[in-house]
Inverse folding.
């Protein structure tokens, strides 16, 4: 028996990531009574990037695909990494906020800002409009698998907060797989799970590097999510018999 599998990306495909990060930063600045606006948000994100990229431990495979704005609310405590690596990553958020607040000329408490960001960012994990019904429509004839880059704690927390977790039969997170999405090794891990006549009908995602490469290395059809092609359109691209 043939079973069709649709492999779907999470960030900026089913739920907003980049825009949600900016909105949460802006909301933190509002709470701290610091003038927000695009420039102030850029300043915070630049500080976050500086702090994250300056940490040599971010190359560990559990966190190598964590973006600097994601690192502001990722939980590193329970990741299967050496103690020294965990110690070096925990506190990244407070250090980044200290840099950011200094750059903004604010003496606000960095730990307060970091906590506020975690709370406000979590509240913004909501699927794009129509995503639930598009997934349900695909689910009538497909198994849904999720393939996402990042660390297991944050990606699984986002999936849980989105309310979409129970629609997916398999979840592949790059940090767990041990290889980034788009590499031959990640694709091989997905392929190994294609047991009992399962075949991939389509890969959907917004990235022309990671998602497209997953489709290309697997030899599977790709639907790119853009401002014009939303996830809600994906069921119409399915060519399953
Ligand atoms: Mg994405």
């Amino acid at each position: 028996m043939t079973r069709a599998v649709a492999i779907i990306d999470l960030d900026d495909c089913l739920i907003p990531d980049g825009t949600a990060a900016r909105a949460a930063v802006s909301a933190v600045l509002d709470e701290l009574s610091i003038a927000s606006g695009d420039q102030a948000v850029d300043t915070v994100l630049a500080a976050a990037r500086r702090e994250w990229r300056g940490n040599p431990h971010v190359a560990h495979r559990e966190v190598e695909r964590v973006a600097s704005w994601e690192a502001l609310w990722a939980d590193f405590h329970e990741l299967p990494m050496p103690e020294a690596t965990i110690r070096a990553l925990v506190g990244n958020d407070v250090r980044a906020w200290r840099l950011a607040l200094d750059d903004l000329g604010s003496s606000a408490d960095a730990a307060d800002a970091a906590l506020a960001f975690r709370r406000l960012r979590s509240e913004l994990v909501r699927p794009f409009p129509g995503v639930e019904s598009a997934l349900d429509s695909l689910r009538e004839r497909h198994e849904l698998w999720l393939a996402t880059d990042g660390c297991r704690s944050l990606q699984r927390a986002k999936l849980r907060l989105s309310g979409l977790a129970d629609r997916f039969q398999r979840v592949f997170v790059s940090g767990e797989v041990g290889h980034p999405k788009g590499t031959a090794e990640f694709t091989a891990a997905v392929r190994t799970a294609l047991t009992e006549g399962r075949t991939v009908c389509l890969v959907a995602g917004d990235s022309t590097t990671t998602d497209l490469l997953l489709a290309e290395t697997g030899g599977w059809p790709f639907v790119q999510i853009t401002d014009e092609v939303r996830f809600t359109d994906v069921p119409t691209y399915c060519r399953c018999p």
Remarks:
- Residues 3-16+127-237 form a domain with the Rossmann fold fold (CATH 3.40.50.1000).
- The CA atoms of residues 152 and 175 lie 6 Å apart.
- The chain has two domains: 3-16+127-237, 18-123.
- The radius of gyration is 19 Å.
